[in-house]
Design goal:
With about 375 residues, this protein is of the alpha/beta class. The chain is built from 16 helices and eleven strands. The strands form two sheets. The chain has a seven-stranded parallel sheet, with helices on both faces. It has a four-stranded mixed sheet with strand order 9-8-10-11, with helices on one face. β6, α6 and β7 form a beta-alpha-beta unit. The protein is globular, with a radius of gyration of 21 Å. Bound molecules: magnesium ion (MG). Magnesium ion binds next to α7.
């Protein structure tokens, strides 16, 4: 029976991963949460993991007092505690389902320890791709992506020699794919939070609507599959049935299809690529209609910005994701408008230095300075708008 450590076990991917792991007969040997003490406590009682980490040390103390005497789970906290959750249990597989750069150090440690990584976190590759990929090459750690598109591309490349002509990265188009530029400028956070296909957290729902999320996925794909920007084409595919495709030298494309259900890519990673019975339903084929279109970079400029960051290289993508974090928060709070998200992102990363960050500590430093710049830009826009 294999075991898995789930970092970010109380989030959307984390809770689904627990169901998938149990269904596969796996042991969950470590879990972690950022905030949600109550759910983490329930998970400890149910799973009896070796280690459970709660980010805040005060809350972690309260948690340690709450769990029953029969449970031997070690409660940890902070960055050191998260690293321990990643590498200190018997887990062979570490699923990283945290958001932001919070788990970067833990991910890096897990790769160093040659664990198999199921990667559901985007920021890791967007902000520290060169460090993560270099370390994985050195340690032989296998990174299996859990983002649905990247899982699809990974599956399309199975059995090939890794060479391809083009990656076709599909995209639902978000809730606003048919709005004009003028209409988009008027969108508020309530409208932006209605995503047509996937039910997700607030931040990623906004990122899907601006196509910033797809932009980050382009960068993620570039690192995972060693693909230059010109070999990654985004296609708007509103049905979200083809999760992505790969075109080869002979003109043949292989597409990966299925119902849109995150438990599919989670299972593929946790089962280490074996095809076994899972929790996802299968497609109903009769009447199935699939359409593919090019994205409009004029209306969704955040996607173009991601390509720019990828071409530019170095820490520009890191500055972009740092700025976007704060810009989306400010938009959700009603402080800035929809297209201001793009302005904040563009202005923050335009002057970013070119060199690749050399260490995780430097990534965290660069993130801090990019966020400070973004905050200044947001404040200026908000005060101009009288908010
Ligand atoms: Mg995705």
């Amino acid at each position: 029976m294999k075991s898995v450590a789930i970092l970010g076990s109380t989030g959307s991917v984390g809770t689904q991963a627990i169901e998938v792991a149990i269904n596969l007969g796996m042991r969950v040997s470590a879990i972690s949460a950022n905030e949600n003490l109550d759910l983490l406590e329930q998970q400890i009682n149910r799973l009896k993991p070796e280690i459970a980490c709660l980010a805040n040390s005060q809350k972690a103390k309260a948690l340690a007092q709450r769990i029953g005497p029969g449970i031997k789970t070690k409660i940890t906290s902070g960055q050191a505690g998260l690293v321990e959750a990643a590498i200190g249990s018997s887990a062979e597989i570490v699923l990283v389902a945290t958001s932001g750069t919070h788990a970067l150090e833990a991910l890096h440690a897990a790769i160093k320890a040659s664990k198999t990584i199921a990667l559901a976190n985007k920021e890791a590759l967007v902000s520290a791709g060169s460090i993560i990929i270099a370390e994985a090459k050195r340690s032989g750690s296998q990174i299996i992506p859990v983002d649905s598109e990247h899982s699809a591309i990974y599956q399309c490349l199975e059995g090939s020699n890794g060479e391809f002509e083009k990656i076709l990265l599909t995209c639902s188009g978000g809730p606003f794919k048919n709005l004009s530029k003028e209409e988009l400028a008027m969108v508020d956070s309530k409208q932006a939070l209605m995503h047509p296909t996937w039910s997700m957290g607030k931040k990623i729902t906004i990122d899907s609507s601006t196509l910033m999320n797809k932009g980050f996925e382009v960068i993620e794909a570039s690192w995972l599959f060693c693909a230059p920007p010109e070999k990654i084409q985004v296609l708007i595919h509103p049905q979200s049935i083809v999760h992505s495709a790969v075109e080869f030298a002979d003109g043949i494309a292989i597409a990966q299809m299925g119902v849109p259900d995150m438990r599919g890519p989670i299972q593929y990673a946790l089962a280490e690529k074996k095809r076994v019975k899972g929790l996802c339903g299968s497609l109903s084929w009769p009447g199935l209609q699939l359409t593919f279109d090019e994205p409009d970079l004029e209306r969704f400029p955040c996607l173009a910005l991601a390509y720019e960051a990828l071409v530019h290289g170095g820490s520009m993508a890191l500055a972009l994701t740092s700025a976007n974090d704060l810009a989306v928060d400010a938009f959700l709070e009603g402080r800035i408008g929809y297209y201001d998200i793009y302005d904040v992102n563009a202005q923050t990363c335009v002057k970013e230095q070119i060199a690749d960050p050399a260490s995780i500590a430097q990534v965290i430093e660069l993130e801090k300075s990019a966020k400070a710049r973004a905050k200044g830009i947001i404040d200026a826009i908000a005060s101009k708008r009288g908010r």
